[in-house]
Specification:
alpha/beta; Rossmann fold; seven-stranded mixed β-sheet; globular
Length: 207
């Protein structure tokens, strides 16, 4: 294996970034209900992202940054990324969430790159608008294919790890498809399932 692509929310990080943001801003119930629908594959991911971003309109940007920089990493995340790097794999993070969270976590973990969206802010407050490279349900697969072409890595040399319906597109381009404490929609398309909430379990699946 030469390339490992991790989902961020509820995979490398223990929870959903947007739910943590919503809780800090007093919008937890509305946002978490939309998140649940999207992760189970019952709601178009782009639509879900836009609806949730709108609910965060008016949130102070410094508060958003603070929340993103204290998100809890998944048990075993640091050790797993470190060991993959030691074995010579390129490690990337794909997230339908936000760069303020993924860029910070990538630095902590030593990942090679992170790809995510951003919440637009103006005059110190979120505007309710969002953009980026991970807006659609098939964005992760599209980006994984681009990276494979750029790095000269084949599907047979790629592992993808995720938990939600929007991670299915990554699986199309990975030989090892790991559903980590995942929703049923993803488990159905996986060839490896980890139910223990410890990312170190993934290491045993990689040759």
């Amino acid at each position: 294996m030469k390339l490992c692509a991790f989902d961020f929310d509820s995979t490398l990080m223990d929870g959903e970034t947007i739910n943590f943001l919503a809780e800090a801003y007093g919008k937890a119930d509305e946002v978490s209900a939309i998140t649940k629908e999207a992760m189970e594959g019952d709601l178009d991911f782009f639509e879900a992202l836009i609806r949730r971003a709108t609910l965060l309109k008016g949130m102070p940007y410094p508060l958003m940054k603070e929340v993103c920089e204290r998100l809890p990493l998944m048990n075993g995340a640091a050790e797993t990324v470190s060991e993959l790097k030691r074995r010579g794999l390129t490690v990337v993070i794909f997230s339908g969430g936000f760069r303020d969270a993924t860029d910070f976590a990538a630095g902590r973990l030593g990942a090679d790159a992170a790809f995510a969206n951003f919440l637009h802010h103006k005059n110190g407050f979120l505007t309710g608008l969002a953009g980026g490279e991970m807006m659609r349900s098939d964005s992760k697969g599209d980006m994984l294919l681009r990276l494979q072409r750029l790095l000269g890595v084949s599907k047979e040399e790629t592992i993808a790890v995720g938990d939600g319906a929007n991670d299915r597109s990554m699986f199309r381009y990975a030989a090892v498809k790991v559903a980590f404490c995942a929703k049923e929609a993803l488990k159905r398309e996986a060839n490896a399932i980890v139910e223990k909430k410890d990312l170190r379990e993934v290491l045993g699946l990689i040759r």
